[in-house]
Amino acid sequence: MTRKAGIVGLIATCLVLSGVGAPARAEVTATSPVEFRAQLEQLLHALESGDTDAVQRVASVLPDQPRRTGWNAAALAVSDEARRLCNDEQGPADADWQRLTAVCRQLLNETRDEPEREPLRKRTLAETRKALTEVLAAPEYHGTTAPSWWQRYGIRVLEALSRWLERIFSTRLGQRAGVMAYYIAMGILVLPLFILAGYLIWRALQSREETVSTVVTRSFTLLESPNVYWQRAQELLQRGELIEALKNFHLALLAGLEKRGLVVHDRSRTNWEYLTQFRQKSPGPALVSSFQSLNLIYDRTVFGAESCDAADIQQFASLTNKLLQDLGGGEITGADQP
Asked: What is the pLDDT of residue 278?
């Protein structure tokens, strides 16, 4: 298992380094890969022929090739693997031996294409430098000042903190802590919204219950008997409390109409709303006109601050009694003695 892992690592290292070595090699002193190619050809010939001594000899001198980033790493990897195969007494029939042979062939193909790609790399590098020079010649890159010591120190601290956080959250424990912190933050942000929504819904339900209960209370609120209001009005009239006497005579009228099913008492309604109800259920327009006259007298006296005397109140009581008598359904006790 260890040998297979080593072979796979060798192949991956050689392929990656051979691919990324091109841009790196453009930045160092150009050295001809002829010597390295010759050593690879000798090693490949020795591997194919199965000559263990030749393989060890070439592998020992292979790391001495020119010190360039890509080929140096590949040479070291190939040399170490070749020596290991020889020490393990493996031969051309073994899978590891064949893999190393395939790697050497691919490296030879890479070095063979190197001279052809060199002019293209040089031209690309020159174009890149020219474009970079034009960009840096723009006015926004002129007149810049170097950062002060505390700015440089702050940047280094931020970079160190960023690396430290990345190292922490790259572990399994850090990832779990990040997930927990995310859910805690979401709970802190979302929980008040749920509480507010629940409170608003509760208030809406409460207001609806209050409205329903109020409506039910109004629909079942009944006036007292007309005789009670009539007797109370006569007592107030005798004491000289004219306005209160007028109000009680009017309540006696409403109680008589409610008793006959012509209006429904509700403290929130006005006298003219009672008139509308009465008009919808009244047997004749003369009765509606009489009720309207009583409302006018009531509004002028109570709300219009119009002066009145006992005779006016008695006239109001007489009109009220006549309207109730015309409607039928019983008379008010003591109505003939205002």
From this structure: 84
